[in-house]
From TrEMBL:
One of its GO terms (molecular function) is ATP hydrolysis activity. It comes from the Bacteria. It comes from Hymenobacter coccineus. InterPro entries: AAA+_ATPase, ABC_transporter-like_ATP-bd, ABC_transporter-like_CS, ABC_transpr_LolD-like, P-loop_NTPase. One of its GO terms (cellular component) is plasma membrane. This is Phosphonate ABC transporter ATP-binding protein. PANTHER family: CELL DIVISION ATP-BINDING PROTEIN FTSE (PTHR24220:SF470), IMPORT ATP-BINDING PROTEIN (PTHR24220). The lineage of its organism: Bacteria, Pseudomonadati, Bacteroidota, Cytophagia, Cytophagales. SUPFAM superfamilies: P-loop containing nucleoside triphosphate hydrolases. Keywords: ATP-binding, Nucleotide-binding. Residues 6-225 form the ABC transporter domain.
Length: 225
């Protein structure tokens, strides 16, 4: 049986009082991989923010990782976020802490107990992104691609059912972007659904997946064409 990770029906994505997207209906199942494309200002980030409850869903229905979005109580938001991996410009690494301390910060904030367990989890996710040797380094001593891999490692800490990524290959050279995409492919293969906003059509061509397009205030779905 299919397992729905995201389902929006007739949803309106709002920024303050402005409707950015209307009539948004789509679903993602476990292990789906979809791109989110569209011009600057077309609503990609706003849609992702709605999915992680940074913007409220006021019109339409929606569930994400088992949480109903309309009228989601503020107290429930951290529980929703624990089920998600978020790779977003708004969630930078803390510059005054090492890589391991950055990861520990998230584990502590999401209720992990036990020093050994936490250390093991940090080692696991850093190994997964190929950065085992970077645990004690400061973020600014890493390359842009390495920093992005740490952000992805951080997003994996709580074994998310859904990874939301906004321009994860932005500002990276093509080879580094490629290594990020290979990492995403592995993460997706291991059972995490991925929704990735991007302007990078070379990446989309090389790693073809379903495409959701924000256009003229609506969301078009390549799976429905
Ligand atoms: N914090 C905000 N407050 C009010 N309006 C906003 C805010 N952020 C974005 N908007 C508006 O919402 C609309 C959609 O913006 P959004 O950032 O979702 O687009 P985008 O497709 O992600 O763009 P980009 O490709 O440049 O990241 C735009 O008209 C934008 O001006």
């Amino acid at each position: 049986m299919s397992e729905l990770i995201v389902e929006l029906r007739d949803a309106t994505v709002m920024q303050e009082t402005q409707a950015v997207l209307q009539g948004v209906s789509f679903a993602l199942e476990k292990s789906d991989f979809a791109y989110l494309v569209g011009r600057t200002g077309s609503g990609k980030s706003s849609l992702l923010k709605t999915l992680y409850a940074d913007l409220p869903l006021l019109v339409g229905t929606g569930t994400v990782a088992g949480f109903a979005l309309p009228r989601l109580p503020v107290g429930k938001v951290p529980y929703l976020r624990r089920r998600l991996g978020i790779v977003f410009q708004d969630f930078q690494l803390l510059p005054d802490r090492t890589v391991a301390e950055n990861l520990l910060f998230v584990l502590n904030a999401t209720g992990w107990r036990g020093k050994a367990r936490k250390q093991q989890r940090i080692a696991d996710v850093l190994g997964r992104v190929g950065l085992s040797s970077a645990a004690n380094r400061m973020p600014h001593r890493l390359s842009g691609g390495e920093q992005q891999r740490v952000v992805i490692a951080r997003a994996l800490l709580n074994e998310p059912t859904l990874l939301l990524a906004d321009e994860p290959t932005g500002n990276l050279d093509p080879e580094v972007a490629d290594s990020i995409m290979q990492l995403f492919t592995e993460i997706n293969y291991a059972g995490t659904a991925i929704l990735m906003a991007t302007h990078n059509f070379q990446v989309i061509e090389k790693y073809p997946h379903r495409v959701l397009t924000c256009q003229d205030g609506a969301l078009l779905d390549s799976a429905r064409n």
